[in-house]
Amino acid sequence: MNLTMDKIVNLCKTRGFVFPGSDIYGGFANTWDFGPIGVELKNNIKRAWWKRFVQESDNTYGVDSAILMNPKVWEASGHVASFSDPKMDCKNCKTRHRADNLIEAYSKGKVNAEAMTNEGMEQYIADNDIKCPNCGKRDWTPIRQFKLMFETSRGTIDGEKDVIYLRPETCQGEYVNFLNVQRTARAKIPFAIAQIGKSFRNEITPGNFLFRTVEFEQMELQMFCKEDSSMDIYNSYKEQALKFVQDLGLSQDHLRFHDHDKLAHYAKAACDIQYLFPIGWQELNGIHHRGTWDLSRHEQFSGKSLQYLDPFTNERYIPNIIEYSIGADRLALALLCEAYDEELLEQGDTRVVMHFHPAIAPYKVAVLPLQKNLADKAQEVLNKLNKYFMCTYDEAGSIGKRYRRQDEIGTPYCVTIDFDTLEDNTVTIRERDSMKQIRLDIDKLVQYVSEKIMF
Ligand code: ATP
Fold first, then answer.
1. How far, in Å, CA of 18 to CA of 41, rounded?
2. Residue 366: Cβ within 10 Å count
3. Residue 100: pLDDT over 70
4. Which CATH number among 3.40.50.1820, 3.40.50.720, 3.40.630.10, 3.40.50.800 corresponds to the domain 363-452?
5. Structural domain 84-147, CATH architecture
6. Cα(444) to centroid of ligand 1, in Å?
7. pLDDT tens for each residue of 116-154
8. Above 90 in pLDDT, residue 162?
């Protein structure tokens, strides 16, 4: 099967996973709305992440910090001064490109464009006659720095406005709350603060569906630790991050570590986990050893001490930070790609089936009365089940068609109510991947499904 992004986009649109943003107005570039099935999928992904990294951890604490922050935060973080990319426009076809990406693609990664000045990049592009990947002409504008933070304003005094920013990353909410959390949770180092929330980036080259959008959700944690244990913790998060996505269903063949050679000046190590999307190997998440940079900068800009007092040794110090961050939308895209399958069946027809891990499947159970006059009994079963999990109900069309509809949205279990149900209180339960059916007592359904959907 040749999996293309178009197939995924199309399935998402027709089945109600994801719609183009502002659809009736012709869309709004690179924004997407999660539909009834998609919102379940994404919520389940976020729940699985939170369960694994917060609920099951004895030293990770959650927060939900404000999107709008004091603008000084973004001065301290370095975003105001340097969160921008070098952009060039093609005057011929009017497409926009990142100069560093053009150079890296041309040199197949051999030239480190990030270390070049804008003049150096312009010269390299001219010397090597690098053309527009879209139209093949070389008619570039000079490089201009493109600001990646969305600015807005907040009126304070009549007529006066302060520039504020939509956060481009969630982690600053953890840094500014480091001591609040430490004191109230009585946390001892090493401990982490985790958060799931929206970030906004005015990306130069957004696209590829959910892969790169201007508004997206991040699931991330910041682990505060002592320097001498920091590399072990960094390595442990690399493994935990890999295991998490494997446990959710991404296959080992489609995953790899990508250690960074070029590091930010303050960083001690950095690694991405890449996934083999239909567009090639791309970053799925990042794990970064950030040293003491973030807390030192906030200490400097806020004037407040952010030192940790070790209760055992009475030592005071700024902890190192290990960051692990993954995009919920980007992970949803990877899981959609991985789950998609076109299966050739014995009778010669094909079925499209989404092999989601049951824990992230939008609906856990579809309740299907064999005939419409069994609807009352089916409703009764539905009302029992939907107290425990997200279920759906379908009585339209042949049972075979209804199974196919559920396969396409990845529902792991279909429960069929037939005339025997009225006699003996049993139903047929069909499993999505094997298509095997067994007969089960209605009173055992909740336990049966609960065990199967555990993450
Ligand atoms: P990239 O190199 O793809 O731009 P990044 O290194 O800037 O990503 P981080 O700042 O480390 O990304 O963000 C952590 C995670 O957030 C990424 O690994 C990715 O999963 C997600 N992410 C970042 N930018 C976007 C975006 N524009 N759209 C969707 N997800 C994103």
1. 10
2. 23
3. yes
4. 3.40.50.800
5. 2-Layer Sandwich (3.30)
6. 43
7. 899 999 999 999 999 999 999 999 999 998 889 999 998
8. no
The residue to mutate among 218, 242, 275, 323, having the most atoms of ligand 1 within 8 angstroms of its beta carbon, is 218
| Amino acid letter for position 205 | T
Query: Does the pLDDT at position 170 exceed 80?
Result: yes
From the CA of 327, how far away is ligand 1's center (Å)?
6
Residue 172 identity: Q
Question: Residue 75 corresponds to which tokens in the numbers above?
Answer: 């001065």
The pLDDT value given to residue 368: 98
How far is the CA of 25 from the CAs of 28, 33, 38, 88, 409, in angstroms?
Answer: 8, 13, 21, 29, 27
Task: Name every protein residue with a CB atom under 6 angstroms from any ligand 1 atom.
Answer: 169, 201, 203, 212-213, 216, 218, 283-286, 325-327, 329-330
Q: Is it the case that residue 160 has pLDDT exceeding 80?
A: no
**Whether CATH 3.10.690.10 fits 5-69+149-336:** no
Residue 220 CA: which ligand 1 atom is closest?
14
Ligand 1 centroid, distance to 269 Cα (angstroms): 17
State in Å: Cα 330 to ligand 1 middle. Answer: 8
Q: Report the C-alpha gap between 73 and 35 in whole angstroms.
A: 34
**Residue whose entry in the numeric block shows the structure tokens 């709305």:** 33
Condensed to tens digits (0 to 9), the pLDDT of residues 217-270 reads 999 999 999 999 999 999 999 999 999 999 999 999 999 999 998 888 899 999
| Domain ranges within the chain, ordered by starting residue | 5-69+149-336, 84-147, 363-452
| Residue 157: band (very low, low, confident or very high) from pLDDT cuts 50, 70, 90 | low
Q: What is the pTM of this model?
A: 0.93
Average pLDDT over residues 373-381: 97
Contact predicate 278/8, CB 8 Å: yes
Residue closest to 142 by CA, chosen among 159, 122, 162, 161: 122
Tell which one of 114, 202, 262, 325 to mutate to probe ligand 1, the residue whose CB is within 8 A of the most ligand atoms: 325
- The protein residue whose alpha carbon is closest to atom 26 in ligand 1 is 212
Atom index in ligand 1 nearest the CA of residue 282 equals: 3
Instruction: Over range 335-344, report the average pLDDT.
Output: 97
* CA 348 to centroid of ligand 1, rounded, Å: 42
Distance 282 CA to ligand 1 centre (A): 10
Give nearest CA residue, ligand 1 atom 24: 212
